[in-house]
UniProtKB/TrEMBL annotation:
Protein name, as recorded: Protein kinase domain-containing protein
Organism (species): Polyplax serrata
GO biological process, alphabetically ordered: cell differentiation; intracellular signal transduction; microtubule cytoskeleton organization; spermatogenesis
SMART domains: S_TKc
Cofactor names: Mg(2+)
PANTHER family with a match to the protein in the record: MAP/MICROTUBULE AFFINITY-REGULATING KINASE, TESTIS-SPECIFIC SERINE_THREONINE-PROTEIN KINASE 1
Gene Ontology cellular component terms for the protein in this record: cytoplasm
Amino-acid positions noted as binding ATP in the UniProt annotation, renumbered to this chain: K56
InterPro entries (alphabetical): Kinase-like_dom_sf, Prot_kinase_dom, Protein_kinase_ATP_BS, Ser/Thr_kinase_AS
Keywords: ATP-binding, Developmental protein, Differentiation, Kinase, Magnesium, Metal-binding, Nucleotide-binding, Phosphoprotein, Serine/threonine-protein kinase, Spermatogenesis, Transferase, Ubl conjugation
Family, as annotated: Belongs to the protein kinase superfamily.
Domain named Protein kinase: residues: 21-288
């Protein structure tokens, strides 16, 4: 990972220019990184940009050791594996440059436009759910699903981004590994996370998806509570309801879907496959079938999963023979 001085004016940073990027504007930032809109130039013609990219710059001199040693390497490892039309594509692993999402993130879009109509919410939910299904097939959980991590492209498709908390959920022996780390955003966290017990992060991803769907439809959180203990109590009592102004126009199918996703009992909560094949998705021909790219990504994930299972099975047999 290259080092940059985040305090210096980015347009005056020689390292950025030497790598073939011209910075256009700042898109945002967080605790450890700044994100800029950049243009990547052809090596032989510096006057003609090849494409626009979102450039995430991390100066590892100013971030905690745990982030550099644990979370960043894990994020980069996972991003190398993922190839899906609704997951942000990484252009360069060393600079972590990703394709620019022209319409910003979902939270900003909702704050500007208001609640998302049910039809559009259904399409975006299907795309996010397919991205999660792809990851879960590879035994990878996202663990930080929220509106800020859903990016909207120029043609109004969405892509899942930010894999800093993502992790594999099985070890090299094929055994499931529960998570014990409290990560992600509290408002999107499932009750099993808030309770502080080991949890299956794939199941918790589904809860976060439910919160995301609710936010799209209501421009509000399902549980308006900042105190963690009180938030947990409201979650397990299923103490939430739709905003009055939208409830009357929403379909019974989406209401039923959210009832089954925002289910505090992990054994009763919908799986990602049940979300993708729910009655809500069958209401619209646009979400009835997967695109060719979506299908191909899932087929490849299943094939990769089959190879992983075969390798684990073979390793187990080898250990038995010894």
């Amino acid at each position: 990972m290259s080092q940059f001085d985040l305090a210096a004016p980015i347009n005056h940073n020689p390292k950025v220019h030497s790598e073939g990027y011209r910075v256009l504007k700042k898109l945002g930032g967080g605790s450890y990184a700044m994100v800029y809109l950049t243009e990547l130039y052809n090596e032989t013609d510096r006057e003609k940009p090849v494409e626009r990219l979102a450039c995430k710059i991390i100066d590892i001199r100013f971030v905690p050791d745990e982030f550099v040693d644990k979370f960043l390497p894990r994020e980069l490892k996972i991003l190398r594996q993922l190839r899906h039309p609704h997951i942000i594509h990484i252009h360069s692993i060393y600079k972590k440059n990703s394709r620019y999402a022209e319409r910003g993130d979902l939270l900003d879009y909702i704050l500007r436009r208001g609640p998302i109509p049910e039809g559009q919410s259904r399409i975006w939910t299907k795309q996010v759910a397919l991205a999660l299904q792809y990851m879960h097939e590879l035994e990878i959980a996202h663990r930080d699903l929220k509106c800020e991590n859903i990016l909207i492209t120029s043609n109004f498709n969405v892509k899942l981004a930010d894999f800093g908390f993502s992790r594999c959920v099985v070890n090299n022996k094929g055994l499931r590994m529960l998570s014990e780390t409290y990560c992600g955003s509290t408002a999107y966290s499932a009750p099993e996370i808030l309770k502080g017990i080991p949890y299956n992060p794939k199941v918790s991803d589904i809860w976060s998806l439910g919160v995301l769907i609710y936010v799209m439809l209501n421009k509000a959180m399902p549980f308006e509570e900042t105190n963690v203990k009180k938030l947990y109590e409201r979650q397990i009592k299923k103490n939430w309801k739709f905003k009055a102004k939208v409830e009357s126009v929403l379909s019974d199918q989406v209401k039923n879907l959210l009832e089954n996703i925002l289910e505090p009992n992990v054994h009763k909560r919908y799986t990602i496959s049940e979300v993708v094949t729910s009655g809500w998705m069958f209401m619209d021909h646009r979400t009835l079938h997967m695109t060719e790219m979506e299908t191909l990504a899932l087929v490849k994930a299943k094939e990769e999963r089959r190879k992983m299972d075969e390798e684990i099975f073979s390793a187990k047999n080898d250990r038995k023979k010894k």
